[in-house]
Amino acid sequence: MFFLAGQPRKPRSDKDPMQLQGSTALVTGTNSGLGRHFAIELLRRGAKVYATARRPELVDIPGAEVLYTDITDQTSVEAAAAVATDVDLLINNGAYTGIGNLVSGDLDVVRQLMESHYFGTLSMIRAFAPVLAGNGGGAILNVLSAVAWTTVESNTALAAAKSAQWGLTNGVRVELAPQGTLVAAFVPGLVASETLKEAMKASGFALPEDPMIEPDYLVRLALDGIEAGEVEILDRFGAAAKATLSGPPRTFDLTALA
Hints:
Keywords: Oxidoreductase. Belongs to the short-chain dehydrogenases/reductases (SDR) family. InterPro entries: NAD(P)-bd_dom_sf, SDR_fam. It is globular and about 45 Å long. The protein has a seven-stranded parallel β-sheet, sandwiched between helices. 40% of the residues lie in helices and 12% in strands. With 258 residues, it is α/β, with parallel strands linked by helices.
């Protein structure tokens, strides 16, 4: 079926899986880590990619269209949506990487974590929901973490923000279903990114390399899940964390992952 430029596409149904080849994706936080790997893999799969970051000068991804986007700045978010009107896949990856506890930590850090992981994600979704609707429904992938289901000592603030983001993802899925938008949660454990390693080192964590999973594998897992129409995409740590929800609350035991 062909569609005229500017003509709304027929909403995608659950029987019409998302095809990444020929799609147009916008990925937040692409200057490093998982976001950069998402952009590179999407390009490899034949998608057009808007690679966004708060510091676009640090984005080095040949073939991608680089945009400045600060997900905590509504004006910036709206500007991105005004430019990227052909997007049919939104990947909410970028967020503040601070570390802190809810009770004893810096309250500004707690607020920034919630502002970026929850409200920043929500702002992007609200801005791009009409864009996705106009392009046939498409899909949204929210990058969460296993700590959404098992809090982590010394970073309970991040765990709380990720839990809130999971609830947001489930709510948005219901709201956007009528327009044919797939809303998926990607829930990995520990991503072997320089950002995570530096953050953990700064916080005093001593963790072996073994539990960390390479970002290129995780990105392939997530994108395969989108093409399969999955609403929750988990690595082995995410699956183990999800299984704990049927029992008493547990912490994310970093030392037991090696």
